[in-house]
Design a protein that fits this description.
Helices cover 33% and strands 20% of the residues. With 132 residues, the protein is an alpha+beta fold. It has a five-stranded antiparallel sheet with strand order 4-1-3-2-5, sandwiched between helices.
């Protein structure tokens, strides 16, 4: 299933998050592997300070596996279905693991790309401005 995640970086965690992304250790040890880095690459920072991204998760509870890794750096504000669960080929049993190569959220992801700023660039800029 795919979820639309809204989150806010926890106070004092910007630098640690940037380091984990840069060193590719974000999510290290999770079965979700490189999904965390892919999520940060596609995430958008909105004007209200929230980060948003679409995440693939196969857990029985949304982000069950990923939650502890995200909560190290983020306050998770909202996790909601990114599309109709009934049409999800993985969830309805039509095609196991279909979410890996599915384009069911393409319209949502395209719309999201048009909002706010690229999360990674914003994170980097916020750290540079704090150093000067």
């Amino acid at each position: 299933m795919r979820y639309l995640v809204s989150a806010r970086i926890k106070n004092g965690k910007r630098r640690a998050l940037a380091k984990a992304i840069e060193q590719k250790t974000l999510g290290l040890g999770s079965v979700a592997g490189g999904e965390y880095l892919r999520n940060m690459e596609s995430a958008r920072l909105l004007a209200d300070g929230t980060a948003r991204w679409v995440e693939v998760c196969f857990c029985p509870q949304p982000l069950q596996e990923e939650r502890p890794y995200w909560e190290e750096f983020f306050d998770l504000l909202q996790i909601k279905n990114a599309h109709d669960r009934n049409r999800c080929r993985d969830v309805n049993g039509e095609e196991p693991w279909a979410c890996c190569e599915c384009d069911c959220t393409k319209k949502l992801e395209d719309k999201l790309r048009g909002k706010g700023q690229e999360f990674l660039n914003s994170l980097k800029k916020s750290l540079e401005s704090r150093e000067s």
